[in-house]
Structures are given as structure tokens and as C-alpha cells.
Specification:
The chain is α+β, with helices and mostly antiparallel strands and 103 residues long. It has a 3-stranded antiparallel beta sheet with strand order 1-3-2. 8% of the residues are buried. The mean pLDDT is 79.
């Protein structure tokens, strides 16, 4: 069921992962821990991320790697006059009056 061919070595895995256009262009890539552990190993992969000066976060079994040296911030809503979960400036009751729009 796995569509990716098995890599012959950990070095081949690293070359495939870090040789992509996303990495060269300083974009963002996502990899599953399952594949990282199968082909290279968690600790070695994290060490390689840090060796390159990249940042990474983990969520739900995946690693998101920011392939640049810019800081990473967790975005949160600004404190304001609204109830949590709603839009700034509107209460939850006011928001429930608006019809939901889906593309």
C-alpha cells in the first residue's frame, strides 16, 4: 500500500527529503514521523534540521519543517471585546444570526 519506494540508505532518504525544490526555495515541508523513523531515525532527523538552521514543529504524527532561518511564531487572536471562538466585535449570539457560507 505504501507508494514510496524503500530508500536504500539513510543518506538516500536525507538526499530525497532535503534535495527538494521546497527546501532550496526556503519553503515549508511536512513529513510523517512514521517515515522519518523508518528511513532515518527521529534524533538524527532533528539533528539534521538544526544543523541546517531550520525550525520544526510537531503535530498529530507529522513534522512541519520551515526550511529557512526565520523565526516561527504561534499565532493567537488578539485580546478584544469578543467571546472566544467568535469574530472580533461580535458576540457569539450575534454571529449565530449570520448564515454560514461555504465555497
Amino acid at each position: 500500500m505504501d507508494k514510496q519506494p524503500p530508500h536504500k540508505s539513510p543518506q538516500a532518504f536525507l538526499a530525497d527529503v532535503f534535495g527538494t525544490k521546497l527546501v532550496r526555495d526556503g519553503k515549508v515541508m511536512r513529513r510523517s514521523w512514521r517515515d522519518i523513523e523508518r528511513y532515518f531515525g527521529r534524533d538524527a532527523f532533528i539533528a539534521e534540521i538544526h544543523r541546517r538552521g531550520f525550525r520544526a514543529i510537531e503535530n498529530a504524527g507529522h513534522v512541519i519543517v520551515f526550511c529557512n532561518q526565520e523565526p516561527v511564531r504561534i499565532l493567537r487572536p488578539r485580546p478584544g471585546p469578543y467571546e472566544g471562538g467568535g469574530k472580533p466585535g461580535f458576540s457569539a449570539q450575534e454571529i449565530s444570526r449570520f448564515p454560514a457560507r461555504f465555497p
